[in-house]
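User: We ran a pulldown and think these components assemble together. Before we commit to crystallization trials, I'd like a predicted model of the whole complex to look at. Sequences follow.
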Amino acid sequence: MSDFGKLDQNMPNPWQPKIVAFLCRWCSYAGADLAGVSRLSYPPTTRVILVPCSSRISSYHIIKALMAGADGVLVSGCHPGDCHYLTGNLLARRKFILLKRLLSYMGVAEQRVQFAWVSASEGEEFAALIKEITEKVKAVGPFRGFLRKDGEADAATL
Amino acid sequence: MPQPYNTYLRETLQTLLREKELERWLAFEESSLPLKPRPVFPETSEACDTVVFNGFCVQNLATYLSRYKGRRIGVLVKGCDRRAIAVLVEEKQLAREDLFLLGVPCPGMLNRTQLLTEFPGLDADQIAEEGGHLSLKISGETRTLQREDYLLPACRVCHHRTPEDVDALLDPPPLDAPETEESFATIVSSVGEMPQNDRAALFASEFSRCILCYACRNVCPLCYCDTCFTDSLTPAWMTASPEPGNIFFYHVNRMMHMAGRCVACGSCEWACPEHIQLHLLFGKITADVRDLFAYEAGIDKDAPQPLSHFSEDDPDEQIG
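Assistant: Here's a predicted model for the assembly, 478 residues in total across the polymer chains.
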């Protein structure tokens, strides 16, 4: 950890956000794969977690990611109508809308938790999406809303 | 509540206990704490003699019904108890035909904490509830208060006070108390309009008092999972250590479980030993479900629960 810290200090903008990306196996993960094999470059800020379907993700996983030190969370699945399991993303969508509204109401910056639909053929869109959400999370800065090893909880960074 | 009303209530319970061959009633009696009636489960006519109903019978009695599955039980239900039972029946936790529901048109429940803060040492004998007023007898003097100024937040915005689809309804109602025009949307939008930092600070300050005692979960009629996510060890989502992360995790996920199910009875807020304003949370989720999916738990009995269902036309507003 300390070596990376030294390296960071010599760089013009040392802090890079950590973003946990939950990607659906059939669309978004394949989209990320396509971005990779197409040799597209995008910021190395995401930690990808493969899930069978976007509806596998509940509010547990999203808040737990923030508790575990993520600065942002991305959940991505197939476009509505294209779900491999036919209706998974449509069920997930209702859950996500409610969660997004609730978190925003509780003062969590909208940039922290984001949802996006990315299909298997959208490699370029995936790279653009990661650039965009990285910029958005950078804009709100590090997340210290919960108690972390490196300091006290700070509600102003929710 | 006037004493004749309690006499009338007891006689009704005794008659129905006999006529309907009920095993027992679920109702309220005075407890050792002022203005905090407790649930009572009388099995005999004589045991019904302690039953009361007044503006402090907040707790949702549907919470206790899981103990008596498959037995013939009578329940004294307010509007919110009836709605909670409707949700439990819909979720196949209870059989409607096992229950005998005696509806009481609820006048809206009173805020015990607010009254005890303003009038320390107040006791049930000193309060008379009459129509839209409260008369307090304090050291020989009579104070008259507006009832609606002392309603609990959830009761102030309740529009389903009289239970529907019950086996018998107490007639006349205990009080003729007017409803207000407000709804949860009113309360929630006043918070929603605050700047983001102020909202974060508001909830941080509320949650800073949370000790994760889970009283709000235990009192909730609709929290019936055998293993709650709070107690799950594989995976261990959270611990009961009251740190901001655990507290936030607990409240957000509890609210997500209540989405489309919460009947806004306010029992959780009433049970909270730290007086956390939980109506700001369950009010938000109730208002959002109503706004997005036009659904009210325990009222729209024929419609499927919103989170176990979908529509292709659902809003995509906040999702990219």
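The mean pLDDT of chain B is 92. That may be worth checking against your pulldown data before setting up trials.

User: Thanks, that helps.
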